Amino acid sequence: MSNYANARCITGRAGLYPSRHQSDQVDYPGPMVKCANRHLRYAIMQIADNLICCNHYFAELADVWRQRKDDPRLIRVRVAMRFCRISFQMVAGGSVFNHPAARQRDYVLQKLITFHHQHQTPALQVQRDLQQASMQLPAGEHAAEAKPLQEELSRIQDKRRRGPQPLGEILPAVLAALGVNVIQSPPSGRSDPA
Protein backbone atom coordinates (compact mmCIF):
# COMPACT_ATOMS: atom_id res chain seq x y z
CA MET A 1 0.00 0.00 0.00
CA SER A 2 2.96 2.33 0.48
CA ASN A 3 3.26 2.55 -3.33
CA TYR A 4 -0.17 4.19 -3.64
CA ALA A 5 -0.87 7.72 -2.41
CA ASN A 6 -4.65 7.35 -2.71
CA ALA A 7 -7.41 5.20 -4.19
CA ARG A 8 -7.22 7.00 -7.55
CA CYS A 9 -3.72 5.60 -8.02
CA ILE A 10 -5.11 2.06 -7.77
CA THR A 11 -8.00 2.72 -10.16
CA GLY A 12 -5.55 4.46 -12.50
CA ARG A 13 -3.33 1.39 -12.53
CA ALA A 14 -6.40 -0.72 -13.28
CA GLY A 15 -7.24 1.63 -16.17
CA LEU A 16 -10.66 2.64 -14.87
CA TYR A 17 -10.78 5.90 -16.80
CA PRO A 18 -11.76 6.70 -20.39
CA SER A 19 -9.35 7.33 -23.20
CA ARG A 20 -9.56 10.87 -24.59
CA HIS A 21 -9.83 11.93 -28.23
CA GLN A 22 -8.83 15.57 -28.34
CA SER A 23 -8.32 18.00 -31.16
CA ASP A 24 -8.59 21.77 -30.87
CA GLN A 25 -12.10 22.38 -29.41
CA VAL A 26 -13.05 18.69 -29.44
CA ASP A 27 -12.66 16.61 -26.27
CA TYR A 28 -14.42 13.28 -26.66
CA PRO A 29 -14.18 10.53 -24.01
CA GLY A 30 -13.73 7.12 -25.58
CA PRO A 31 -13.66 3.58 -24.19
CA MET A 32 -11.50 2.68 -21.19
CA VAL A 33 -7.76 2.83 -21.77
CA LYS A 34 -6.08 -0.31 -23.02
CA CYS A 35 -2.78 0.17 -21.19
CA ALA A 36 -3.68 -1.16 -17.73
CA ASN A 37 -3.19 -4.01 -15.29
CA ARG A 38 -5.94 -6.23 -16.69
CA HIS A 39 -5.94 -8.67 -13.75
CA LEU A 40 -6.49 -5.82 -11.31
CA ARG A 41 -9.21 -4.33 -13.52
CA TYR A 42 -10.96 -7.69 -13.79
CA ALA A 43 -10.89 -8.22 -10.01
CA ILE A 44 -12.23 -4.72 -9.25
CA MET A 45 -14.98 -5.02 -11.88
CA GLN A 46 -16.02 -8.44 -10.51
CA ILE A 47 -16.31 -6.90 -7.05
CA ALA A 48 -18.39 -4.07 -8.52
CA ASP A 49 -20.75 -6.56 -10.20
CA ASN A 50 -21.15 -8.46 -6.92
CA LEU A 51 -21.83 -5.25 -5.00
CA ILE A 52 -24.51 -4.21 -7.47
CA CYS A 53 -26.17 -7.64 -7.16
CA CYS A 54 -25.79 -8.32 -3.44
CA ASN A 55 -25.33 -5.04 -1.55
CA HIS A 56 -28.46 -2.97 -0.88
CA TYR A 57 -26.64 0.36 -0.86
CA PHE A 58 -24.90 -0.18 -4.20
CA ALA A 59 -28.00 -1.79 -5.74
CA GLU A 60 -30.04 1.32 -4.92
CA LEU A 61 -27.32 3.59 -6.29
CA ALA A 62 -27.22 1.56 -9.50
CA ASP A 63 -31.03 1.80 -9.81
CA VAL A 64 -30.89 5.59 -9.49
CA TRP A 65 -28.26 5.76 -12.21
CA ARG A 66 -30.24 3.37 -14.45
CA GLN A 67 -33.33 5.57 -14.09
CA ARG A 68 -31.21 8.50 -15.28
CA LYS A 69 -30.43 6.35 -18.36
CA ASP A 70 -26.69 6.21 -17.59
CA ASP A 71 -24.59 3.74 -19.55
CA PRO A 72 -24.42 0.36 -17.70
CA ARG A 73 -20.62 0.32 -18.16
CA LEU A 74 -20.38 3.72 -16.48
CA ILE A 75 -22.48 2.42 -13.57
CA ARG A 76 -20.07 -0.49 -13.06
CA VAL A 77 -17.08 1.85 -13.10
CA ARG A 78 -18.71 4.23 -10.60
CA VAL A 79 -19.36 1.37 -8.17
CA ALA A 80 -15.79 0.10 -8.70
CA MET A 81 -14.39 3.54 -7.91
CA ARG A 82 -16.44 3.81 -4.71
CA PHE A 83 -15.33 0.34 -3.63
CA CYS A 84 -11.69 1.29 -4.19
CA ARG A 85 -12.06 4.43 -2.07
CA ILE A 86 -13.65 2.48 0.80
CA SER A 87 -11.17 -0.41 0.69
CA PHE A 88 -8.19 1.95 0.39
CA GLN A 89 -9.24 3.74 3.59
CA MET A 90 -9.57 0.43 5.41
CA VAL A 91 -6.31 -1.13 4.23
CA ALA A 92 -4.07 1.95 4.21
CA GLY A 93 -5.59 3.35 7.40
CA GLY A 94 -5.45 0.01 9.23
CA SER A 95 -9.09 0.32 10.32
CA VAL A 96 -12.39 -1.44 9.93
CA PHE A 97 -15.23 0.08 7.91
CA ASN A 98 -16.77 2.80 10.03
CA HIS A 99 -19.04 5.15 8.13
CA PRO A 100 -21.28 7.78 9.75
CA ALA A 101 -24.21 6.53 7.65
CA ALA A 102 -23.98 3.02 9.14
CA ARG A 103 -26.60 2.54 11.86
CA GLN A 104 -24.55 0.15 13.92
CA ARG A 105 -21.18 -1.44 13.60
CA ASP A 106 -20.94 -4.92 12.14
CA TYR A 107 -18.31 -7.12 13.73
CA VAL A 108 -16.05 -9.01 11.33
CA LEU A 109 -15.59 -12.15 13.43
CA GLN A 110 -19.29 -12.31 14.34
CA LYS A 111 -20.23 -12.15 10.64
CA LEU A 112 -17.69 -14.86 9.87
CA ILE A 113 -19.16 -17.12 12.56
CA THR A 114 -22.68 -16.51 11.21
CA PHE A 115 -21.53 -17.34 7.68
CA HIS A 116 -19.91 -20.61 8.75
CA HIS A 117 -22.93 -21.53 10.88
CA GLN A 118 -25.29 -21.02 7.92
CA HIS A 119 -23.07 -23.12 5.65
CA GLN A 120 -22.40 -25.82 8.26
CA THR A 121 -18.63 -25.54 7.86
CA PRO A 122 -16.49 -28.09 9.74
CA ALA A 123 -15.20 -26.82 13.10
CA LEU A 124 -11.53 -27.09 12.09
CA GLN A 125 -12.09 -24.81 9.09
CA VAL A 126 -14.04 -22.34 11.24
CA GLN A 127 -11.16 -22.22 13.72
CA ARG A 128 -8.59 -21.63 10.98
CA ASP A 129 -10.65 -18.85 9.38
CA LEU A 130 -11.29 -17.12 12.70
CA GLN A 131 -7.61 -17.20 13.61
CA GLN A 132 -6.60 -15.79 10.21
CA ALA A 133 -9.23 -13.04 10.44
CA SER A 134 -8.22 -12.12 14.00
CA MET A 135 -4.58 -11.75 12.91
CA GLN A 136 -5.60 -9.29 10.18
CA LEU A 137 -7.70 -7.07 12.44
CA PRO A 138 -6.11 -3.79 13.51
CA ALA A 139 -4.85 -3.93 17.11
CA GLY A 140 -7.15 -1.08 18.16
CA GLU A 141 -10.21 -3.12 17.18
CA HIS A 142 -9.44 -6.26 19.19
CA ALA A 143 -11.42 -5.24 22.27
CA ALA A 144 -14.46 -4.22 20.24
CA GLU A 145 -14.38 -7.45 18.21
CA ALA A 146 -13.97 -9.55 21.38
CA LYS A 147 -17.11 -8.19 23.08
CA PRO A 148 -19.74 -10.02 20.95
CA LEU A 149 -17.60 -13.16 21.01
CA GLN A 150 -17.49 -13.12 24.81
CA GLU A 151 -21.28 -12.73 24.89
CA GLU A 152 -21.64 -15.69 22.50
CA LEU A 153 -19.29 -17.81 24.63
CA SER A 154 -21.24 -16.91 27.80
CA ARG A 155 -24.50 -17.83 26.09
CA ILE A 156 -23.10 -21.21 25.02
CA GLN A 157 -21.68 -21.94 28.47
CA ASP A 158 -24.91 -20.88 30.24
CA LYS A 159 -26.95 -23.40 28.26
CA ARG A 160 -24.86 -26.28 29.57
CA ARG A 161 -26.18 -28.53 26.86
CA ARG A 162 -24.90 -32.01 26.32
CA GLY A 163 -23.39 -33.05 23.04
CA PRO A 164 -20.87 -31.36 20.78
CA GLN A 165 -20.39 -27.60 21.06
CA PRO A 166 -17.55 -26.85 18.65
CA LEU A 167 -18.03 -23.08 18.75
CA GLY A 168 -17.65 -23.11 22.53
CA GLU A 169 -14.29 -24.81 22.09
CA ILE A 170 -13.11 -22.45 19.34
CA LEU A 171 -14.04 -19.09 20.87
CA PRO A 172 -11.61 -19.15 23.83
CA ALA A 173 -8.67 -19.57 21.42
CA VAL A 174 -9.90 -16.69 19.25
CA LEU A 175 -10.43 -14.48 22.29
CA ALA A 176 -6.92 -15.30 23.49
CA ALA A 177 -5.57 -14.29 20.07
CA LEU A 178 -7.37 -10.96 20.47
CA GLY A 179 -5.67 -10.48 23.83
CA VAL A 180 -8.76 -11.02 25.98
CA ASN A 181 -8.48 -13.29 29.01
CA VAL A 182 -11.18 -15.92 29.32
CA ILE A 183 -11.91 -16.89 32.91
CA GLN A 184 -12.15 -20.63 33.34
CA SER A 185 -14.19 -22.02 36.19
CA PRO A 186 -12.03 -23.73 38.85
CA PRO A 187 -12.10 -27.52 38.96
CA SER A 188 -14.26 -29.12 41.61
CA GLY A 189 -12.67 -30.54 44.77
CA ARG A 190 -13.66 -34.10 43.91
CA SER A 191 -10.93 -36.47 42.96
CA ASP A 192 -11.42 -38.92 40.12
CA PRO A 193 -12.00 -42.48 41.24
CA ALA A 194 -9.16 -44.35 39.62
SSE diagram, text form:
Layout: H1 7-13, E1 18-23, E2 26-32, H2 38-54, H3 56-67, H4 72-93, H5 108-118, H6 123-136, H7 142-159, H8 166-177
Antiparallel strand pairs: 1-2
Helix pairs in contact: 1-4, 2-3, 2-4, 3-4, 5-6, 6-8, 7-8
Could you explain the architecture of this structure?
The longest helix has 22 residues, at about 70-95. This protein has helices at about 5-15, 40-55, 55-65, 70-95, 110-120, 125-135, 140-160, 165-175; strands spanning about 20-25, 25-30. α2 (about 40-55) packs across α3 (about 55-65) and α7 (about 140-160) packs antiparallel against α8 (about 165-175). Strands 1-2 form a two-stranded antiparallel sheet. A hairpin with a 2-residue loop joins β1 (about 20-25) and β2 (about 25-30). With about 190 residues, the protein is mostly helical. About 60% of the residues lie in helices and about 5% in strands. The chain starts with 6 loop residues before the first helix and ends in a 17-residue tail after the last helix.
Q: Could you write a compact summary of the structure shown?
A:
58% of the residues lie in helices and 7% in strands.
